[in-house]
Design goal:
The chain is an alpha/beta fold and 293 residues long. 28% of the residues lie in helices and 23% in strands. The strands form three sheets. Strands 4-3-2-5-6 form a five-stranded mixed beta sheet, sandwiched between helices. Strands 9-10-8-11 form a four-stranded antiparallel beta sheet. A hairpin with a 5-residue loop joins strand 3 and strand 4. It starts with 17 loop residues before the first strand and ends in a 7-residue tail after the last strand.
Length: 293
């Protein structure tokens, strides 16, 4: 399915990109204060969250910036109804930032010097929501779980994994590229910029006139299963890589996380392609609140 760039000229020779300013979501006309108050049964409060960190090690590296924004949405249609509270803050990690992180984020030592994130406030804002969304939640969530008890008790959604961008004609699920395809760009890797960009992106509709947010929220409620292809033959590694399995060098097995209702088909593929016989691996169901931990 080919996607036509938003902002692409009729002759197809140029594309116009607009710089994103805050979060310019268009709300449905029916979403008045009166409607919101009388339809609380289908109104839900979500949050988009992003962190910038000193590195990729979720056990040892630290958050240096957080950005988050609450929003109300229609659980039946995925339409964003209202923007809510937002919060953005720096955190001094107590050591100089690496040149790589400075280049990637644009954050300098001077920006974070003496700054602190109010984690009690973050915890309070998360507690007011039913769903926390991040673009690659597998990265962001462990950093937040270390600081917020409420985070561990919330369902997390991942716009990187739980929206089928490939089926919509996009060659990459990277946020920057998806933004460009949808006609806008933001400044560097800054937390609140990325939050607003993601929320605006999720408000767009696919070819079936359904918001990306509806697909994400629907998938966030589906049970997941960790498929472990233990004792897989060495010669099957290319098949597993192509199928989306990752190698766990510590435990010495290939694995991936899939929707539980896809397990039957996955086992059939593993038996036919990898084991050439009965499935010899492990299935571990994941509780909804444990996704992306």
């Amino acid at each position: 399915m080919a996607f036509r760039w938003i902002g692409k000229s009729q002759d197809g020779n140029t594309v116009t990109l607009n710089k994103l300013v805050e979060c310019p979501v268009t709300f449905p006309e029916y979403a008045t204060d009166t409607w919101l108050n009388t339809n609380q049964d289908i109104v839900r409060k979500g949050m988009v969250l992003d962190v910038e960190t000193t590195g990729l090690n979720q056990s040892e590296d630290q958050v240096i910036e957080i950005g988050l924004r609450q929003f109300d949405f229609n659980k039946n249609t995925g339409e964003i109804l209202r923007l809510g509270k937002s919060y953005s803050a720096f955190q001094d990690p107590g050591r100089p930032l690496s040149p790589e992180i400075i280049a990637l984020t644009g954050i300098t030592d001077a920006d974070v010097e003496g700054k602190k994130i109010d984690w009690a406030l973050v915890d309070q804002l998360i507690s007011e929501t039913c769903l926390v969304i991040a673009h690659n939640a597998k990265f962001d969530r462990p950093f937040i779980d270390r600081k917020s008890k409420t985070s561990t008790e919330r369902i997390w959604g991942c716009s990187f994994k739980q929206v089928d961008w490939n089926a919509k004609g996009f060659t990459s699920p990277k946020l920057e590229l998806l933004n460009i395809y949808h006609g806008f760009f933001t400044d560097s890797h800054r937390a609140l910029n990325d939050v607003d960009a993601l929320l605006y992106l999720l408000s767009h509709k696919d070819g079936n006139d359904k918001t990306y947010l509806l697909e994400l929220t629907s998938n966030a409620k589906r049970m997941m299963t960790h498929m472990i292809a233990s004792s897989a033959p060495f010669e099957s590694k290319e098949h597993l890589k192509t199928r989306g399995y990752s190698w766990d060098n510590t435990n010495r097995f290939w694995s991936k996380v899939i929707f539980k209702d896809d397990v039957k088909n996955e086992v059939t593929w593993l038996e036919d392609t990898v084991y050439c016989g009965p499935f010899n691996g492990i299935q571990r169901d994941i509780a909804l609140m444990d996704n992306f931990k």
